[in-house]
Every structure is written in C-alpha cells, then in structure tokens.
What we know:
- The protein is α/β, with parallel strands linked by helices.
- It has two domains: 10-74; 78-219 and 226-421, 3-Layer(aba) Sandwich (Alkaline Phosphatase, subunit A).
- It is built from ten helices and 13 strands.
- The chain starts with 16 loop residues before the first helix and ends in a 14-residue tail after the last helix.
Amino acid sequence: MGMVEEPPQPGNLFLDPGEFSLAKKALLPGWSWRQNARVDWHEHRLAQLLSMNRQKRTLLLAAILALLFNLPAAARAEKLPNLIIILADDLGYGDLGCYGHPTIRTPNLDRMAAEGMRFTDFYVAACVCTPSRAALLTGRLPIRSGMSGDLQHRVQTRNSPGGLPPEEITIARALKSKGYATQAIGKWHLGHYPQNLPTSHCFDGFYGLRWSNDMEPGRGLPRNASASLDPKLEWWNCTLMRNDQPLEQPTDLSTLTKRYTEEAVRFIQQNRKKPFFLYFAHTYPHVPLFASKQFQKTSPRGLYGDVVEELDWSVGQVLETLRKEGLAKNTMVFFTSDNGPWLVKELAGGSAGLLREVKAAPGKAACACRASPGGRARSMPAPSTARWPAPWTCSTLALPWPKCPSRRIVSSTAWTWAPCCWAKVPGSAI
C-alpha cells in the first residue's frame, strides 16, 4: 500500500526489445514515439499489460491483430469521430460565465466547460483575425503561409491581392482524405478571391462573410459607427456568400448568428450518417454589434452582452442537435476565440478579465472544448473549452494526455485530434 511500483523494463518482459517496440506501435498507432515526455506513461502501461502469463499475452496480441486488420475495413468508417470547431470573433478571456463574468449569462458554454475541459492558459497564434485563423486551420505559423500581414495591414482587406494559398494543407483537406463531409460557416477572412475561399481548401460548402462585418460600409457612415451601441443596419453593405457566389447584399446583420446556426444544424442533420468536420466561425462579437430580436435588450451587459448571449444560444443549439441525432458521444466540440477583446471600442468591446492587453496585442483567449479569449506579442490567450463524451479515453487515441494540460497553442490544437480521425498530420514545417 502506498508504494510506487517501478515500470518493468523491456529486458524483464517475456518479449524481447524488438517485440516490445512492435507491440508498442501496435497499441498506439499513428503516434510519434520521439516525443519522450509522452512516452514514459504509455510504456509503463504497456509494460503492465505485457507482464502477464503467456496465455493472457496471447489473447492480448490476438485482440490487437483483430483491431489492426479488421477495424480499418469494417468498423473504422462508422466509428470516425466528428469534429466541430466554434470560433468567436474578438471574444475576451473574461466574457463568459465560466471565466468569471458577473453579468453575461452563458449557460450552454458553462455546461460545456463543466462536462468537458476549460482551458486557463490557452494561446492563439496571433492577436488579430487573419493570422490567427490561418494558424488554426493549417497548424502552422501564419508567416509560413503569408498570412501574418505587414506593417500597414495586419489582416486581409478588400484590396489584398492574395489569401491562404490553395496548396496549404488545412484540417478540412486532411479529413476530406478520410471521407469526411466538411463545411465552413461564418467569417472566413483568409482571402476573397475564388482560389482562396473555403471551397478551394476542401470544404464542401461555405456560407458566410468573406471578411469582417465592418469591411463593407454603406454610404454616409457616421464617425466611429462600428463602436456604436445603437447601430443602424443601413450603415453597412455586407455580402453574404454561398460557396463562391454572392447570396445577399446588403445582408441583415442582425440575423447572422441565427442564420449561421440554422445552417450548422442543417449540416449536422444532413451528415449524421457519415463523419463530418464543421468549422463554425461566428462574425460576432466583432463590431459593429447586432443581435436578433429575440436577444435585443435582454442582457444586463447591454448590447455586447446581448450578442454574446446569442452566441451561447447558438452553441446550445449545436449541442442539442448532436444529442437529438445521437451524435453527442462521437463528436468533439471545441470553442474558442480568434483573439482577445477590442477594448478601444469601449462598451462595444469585451473584457480580458484579470488578464492584461487586448486585440492587436498579445493576450489570452477563453477556450472551451467539449471532449470530455492580451499585449503586444505574437500569440495571445483565448477563452477555450472542449467537450467529448466519447466511450473511449484520450490515452487509447494516442493523444498527448491522460494528464490533460490546460496550456495549449491554437495552431497545434486541431492537429492534436488528427490521429483520432485517422488523418495524417502534415510533415511540413510548423
């Protein structure tokens, strides 16, 4: 009692070191064993499994062979997990109930964090929209894909000549190779030419805006209109896209969150019998702020609170759809923000909570992940939660757990889950 048993060494097992290495790879396929910090725990567990009598070891190896040779051809296509990434725009680290906000009510995200994981030291790759999103989707530093901006424009503008290169390997491209249905909904901001839109990056469809909602102003725009707490729809001339074609202009910005959500629900329902990847990038709470009639003037935090609470409602609709369709236990849902709050917008901007610094400067993002948003730097913390009530554990999927660290970098987050989907992680430089 209380004594820690030393992990058996390969020489102490019935298997010789060569067999030990093969069995190790068989038990945890697709994982890099050069990451020594993560190997020790798995080797200890493996050694415990193999330190048994010959009859039990024979049964174990038979089970491994059955898994390796029968699962890929039969059950694997049906068991591939679904992946949903929900990305808020300019949400602050302190803007959710589960991160301590006193007046913004976010019951769905709070429940998601309680059932899954709430990250407290989660960093996005950049402090503005375009490079942060490029890193999220490619797993690479945004400078690698030319998406880090320049001194004049740190994000893509309506006059930017390029966008995310078509040859970049995005999450959608990797999962598409494994038979996944893929969809991008919401704000893109990685290039507005056809060759740079989501449909050129292995997304089956795109429904949303090509850039931020303040980048297509109407005529007679008042000074500092984007930070107004009483914004007018006629001040803006945004274009809603369906794939690479304009669907509506001007778009009623007060309906965006609701329409995005309806599109997301429809996509989940239509693909309930196949694995899918949904990239759900909300336009809000980026300014100008608009909420649907159902949420207008309902939050003690004012217009900003109305907008965030509608985002929380949207997350609830997605989770409820997964439950109704029987997909909740096989779907990883990850929520975070592209960067921190835009404090210069005052009451139209969010809160960094107890942290310092803001959008356009590095800080933290709030992140919620269902598996179970600071300063002048290159990366910033973001609110983030995750939930995945799957019947298997992280360790059996060869993830860098079971000791789940609360510190994560968004550029590596999505590729962390690639082995779970049997997708190949790109070998290109980070």
